[in-house]
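Q: Could you fold this chain for me?
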Amino acid sequence: MSEINRAAVAHLARLAHIEMTAEELDKMAGELDVIVDSIKSVQEVARPDVPATSHPIPLTNVFREDVVGETLSQELALANAPDAADGRFKVPAILDEE
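A: Sure. Below is the predicted structure, expressed as structure tokens.
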């Protein structure tokens, strides 16, 4: 078991300006204790001769050439639009201008 107890959680809560009830302190102490113990078990498995990895498989970006395909004309794209103006979709304003 780690050294995360109710007093340590209360101290951290004060530092973070978080109000916690007695029940929350007890619950958080238990949860943080389990988390810290889990991290310790991972640290025990870590070996200094094995380099750290961010992903188990090397990843590379695969790009393809841009190919222009069949596209809609502006008129056809706007044909079923509920509202259009000046060749563009017209949508209701969601932000007020100030």
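A (continued): The radius of gyration is 29 Å.
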